[in-house]
């Protein structure tokens, strides 16, 4: 695919990603397939306490480095929770002129939920193919850590991988699952571009992106020169 066609497709994808209408905030239905709110009651040091929690899926995430292009691979997408957190009005219809959809667009590691009965590295491999279009062998996935993705209302586990890919492994443009209506942009950053991004005073990314920077710069100096 030519660079002009790639740029055109990226522009169309970004337009679709931010093509929001009729945004309205309401209460969570009791049968959500993604989160389950519960209240935990316990006595700690003799004092009765209550804590509201969310049961969510465990997940995988990965630091992806294209050794052919010498670039790190990320994904960008509209995140409703990030958009919602930017709103002063927490219920009812949203004024998209005052609060544009760009407030919810993030830069993240390629990631996905653990919702299949498969080895964790295979789940990561499938997510990389679906989101970024790289068909990398499971043997390329190096497990780094398993950690908690949250410790307040959630406490799910996230498994982090490092994977190196090549241009030859790119079998499609990625973009996420069409069935699920995902709109995901694949973002390639040189090492210098990534350094510039993480040194900004504010970034539209989760903490795992900063962990990725720390791990990559410390453990892969041969790719940083």
UniProtKB/TrEMBL annotation:
Top enzyme class: hydrolase
UniProt GO BP: nucleoside phosphate metabolic process; ribose phosphate metabolic process
Transmembrane segments: none
GO cellular component, one term: cytoplasm
CDD domains: NUDIX_UGPPase_Nudt14
InterPro entries: NUDIX_hydrolase-like_dom_sf (IPR015797), NUDIX_hydrolase_dom (IPR000086)
Record localization: Cytoplasm
Domain Nudix hydrolase: 55-211
GO MF entries: UDP-sugar diphosphatase activity
Keywords: Cytoplasm, Hydrolase, Magnesium
Cofactor: Mg(2+)
Known catalytic reactions: UDP-sugar + H2O = UMP + alpha-D-aldose 1-phosphate
UniProt key word Hydrolase: yes
EC number per UniProt: 3.6.1.45
Role summary: Hydrolyzes UDP-glucose to glucose 1-phosphate and UMP and ADP-ribose to ribose 5-phosphate and AMP. The physiological substrate is probably UDP-glucose. Poor activity on other substrates such as ADP-glucose, CDP-glucose, GDP-glucose and GDP-mannose.
Assembly: Homodimer.
PANTHER family: UDP/ADP-SUGAR PYROPHOSPHATASE (PTHR11839), URIDINE DIPHOSPHATE GLUCOSE PYROPHOSPHATASE NUDT14 (PTHR11839:SF15)
The name this protein goes by in its record: Uridine diphosphate glucose pyrophosphatase NUDT14
Species of the source: Neodiprion lecontei (Redheaded pine sawfly)
């Amino acid at each position: 695919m030519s660079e002009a066609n790639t740029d055109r497709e990226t522009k169309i994808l970004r337009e679709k990603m931010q093509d929001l209408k009729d945004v309205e905030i309401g209460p969570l239905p009791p049968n959500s397939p993604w989160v389950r709110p519960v209240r935990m009651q316990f006595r700690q040091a003799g004092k009765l306490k209550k804590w509201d929690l969310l049961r969510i899926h465990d997940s995988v995430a990965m630091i992806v480095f294209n050794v052919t292009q010498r670039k790190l691979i990320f994904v960008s997408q509209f995140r409703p929770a990030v958009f919602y957190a930017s709103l002063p009005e927490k219920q009812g219809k949203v004024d998209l002129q005052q609060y544009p959809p760009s407030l919810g667009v993030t830069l993240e590691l390629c990631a996905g939920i653990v919702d299949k009965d498969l080895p964790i590295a295979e789940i990561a491999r499938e997510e990389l193919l679906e989101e970024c279009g790289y068909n990398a062998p499971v043997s390329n996935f190096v497990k780094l850590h398993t950690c908690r993705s949250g410790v307040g209302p959630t406490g799910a586990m996230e498994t982090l991988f490092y994977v190196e890919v090549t241009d030859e492994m790119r079998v499609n443009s990625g973009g996420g699952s069409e069935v699920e209506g995902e709109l995901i942009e694949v973002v390639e950053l040189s090492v210098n571009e990534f350094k510039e991004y993480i040194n900004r005073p504010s970034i539209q990314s989760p903490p795992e992106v900063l962990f990725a920077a720390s791990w990559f710069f410390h453990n892969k100096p041969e790719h940083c020169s």
